[in-house]
């Protein structure tokens, strides 16, 4: 399995295009409009995902650094400890 993109959330694990749809669902708002593309068979969606992944730097450019998180966005992040606590609660531990 080529899991170049793996998302693990409360709904389970998602790879490639399914991961992006899970992110769109969690983002809400107009991002949910992208969910209409789930109607396309996964094999075709993942093929398109692979093509974009191979060409993304050529099409969208590359930066030599990661963007810093703005102070007002820090409250939206979940720490590793909080994430572990949520998982343990879900498992009933």
What is the element layout, followed by pairings?
Elements: E1 6-9, E2 12-15, H1 16-27, H2 42-60, H3 71-74, H4 80-91
Q: What does this protein structure show overall?
A:
- By secondary structure, this protein is mainly alpha-helical.
- The chain has one domain (6-91).
- It has helices at residues 16-27, 42-60, 71-74, 80-91, and strands at 6-9, 12-15.
- Strands 1-2 form a two-stranded antiparallel sheet.
- The chain is globular, with a radius of gyration of 16 Å.
- The model has no long low-confidence stretch (mean pLDDT 82).
Question: How would you summarize this macromolecular structure in one to three sentences?
Answer:
The protein is mainly alpha-helical and 93 residues long. 51% of the residues lie in helices and 9% in strands. It has a two-stranded antiparallel sheet with strand order 1-2.
Order of strands, widest sheet: 1-2
Strand content: 5-15%
Biggest β-sheet description: 2 strands, antiparallel
The CA-CA distance between the termini, in Å, is 31 Å
Radius of gyration: 16 Å
State the total count of DSSP E strands.
2
Task: Estimate the helix proportion, in percent.
Answer: 40-55%
Q: What is the H/E order?
A: EEHHHH
The helix count comes to 4
How many discrete structural domains?
1
Q: What global shape is seen?
A: globular
Helix vs. strand class: mainly alpha
Mean pLDDT across every amino acid position: 82
Identify low-pLDDT runs. none
